[in-house]
Amino acid sequence: MRVALRLGSIFGITILVHFSWLLIFALVTFSLVAKFAGQFPQLPQAAHISIGVAASLLFFGSVLFHELAHSWLALRYGYAVRSITLFVFGGVAEIKEEAKQPAAEIWIALIGPLSSYLLALIFGAIWYVTQTSSAVISSMVGWLALVNVGLATFNLLPGLPLDGGRVLRGIVWKVTGNRERATQVAASAGRLFGYFFILQGLFLVFASQNLANGLWLMFIGWFLSNAAEGARVQMETQRAMTGVQARQVMTTDCPVVAAGTSLLEFVESHLLLSGRRCFIVGSFEQPRGLVTLTDVRKVPRHDWANTSVQAVMQPLANLHAVAPTASIEEVLRLMEQYDVAQIAVVEDERVLGLIGREQLLYLIRNRLELAA
Ligand SMILES: [Zn+2]
């Protein structure tokens, strides 16, 4: 979820739009304009376009409303909500921590579909009232009511990563008292739904010759099964890394290079000889920043001799850093969020060490293999 536009913020929650959403927005608007053009041929094209865009925006608002409902309840339960991202399959609210009690898990999941049903009721009521007075508005809100029913019902399918899957996890968790077991059950259910959609899509493509809908279903199925698997892996990773702190896994023998070193010298006497990819510029006590292979590659080779490492380094202020006591989860989350391969461990403006993505992945793999 990195390539996203920032729309603004509500209740202190950042609202982001993933680029894939723009494609869906265009497709939905396009098909709505065509739908209204077919339904109301007597109206001018400008009217078709305005109704299409209005319906599309309200659809977009409906998805946002659903995610805000999840976020609002999560905040009420005391969980921090970082952002809401709208993307090709709808939206996702990034709640900072996992629910600590099954009841919270169940209600935070359930309120999303409930809010969509509520919207469907409101649009349905407007549809009912406007049926005789305005055919155009009635048609638009009628469509919105159906879409919201569809959104709520699809999300209630009891498999992760869907809301219904979270409800299922909450229920199994409540019954068994075991959150991991519950995650496994809900993730397996999510995978099954994914395979079911893929089969259904294959059937549409080959038996019914319905290529577009078939491919779309297969795409949804593939997404669901992948996300379900991701939920299981994430849980196992968390279990493997429980209680491990950043300072325990950081590398402390980071090579230091002087700020004025030229890139040419840096490459020839450090980068090509040490096998490391990341260096501290300045000194451990007074670090100015980090320089990595990636920074060097941004400069054309013929400029290496007259460019200093300081000119291309990531200044300390821009570095994504954690405290020595930070959890590994936090480190992984930062790497994912900012797409960086190195996280600095910093205390009192001193770099204590570095954690690299590859090193961390090896560590998690070792722990998972030993646990299995
Ligand atoms: Zn939801």
* Number of domain modules: 2
Which stretches are low in confidence, meaning pLDDT under 50 for 5 or more residues running?
none
Question: What is the topology, as strand order, of the major beta sheet?
Answer: 1-2-3-4
Number of helices: 13
Elements, N to C (H/E)? EEHHEEHHHHHHEHEEHHEEHEEH
Distance between the termini: 30 Å
Keywords:
372 residues, four-stranded mixed sheet, binds zinc ion, CBS-domain, 2 domains, single chain
Give a short summary of the structure.
This protein has 372 residues and is an alpha/beta fold.
Question: Secondary structure elements and their pairing?
Answer:
Layout: E1 4-10, E2 13-18, H1 19-39, H2 45-76, E3 81-87, E4 90-95, H3 102-130, H4 135-155, H5 163-176, H6 179-206, H7 211-240, H8 246-249, E5 256-257, H9 263-274, E6 278-282, E7 287-292, H10 293-297, H11 309-312, E8 314-315, E9 321-322, H12 328-338, E10 342-347, E11 350-356, H13 357-371
Parallel strand pairs: 2-3, 5-6, 9-10
Antiparallel strand pairs: 1-2, 3-4, 6-7, 7-8, 10-11
Helix pairs in contact: 1-2, 2-3, 2-4, 3-4, 3-5, 5-6, 6-7
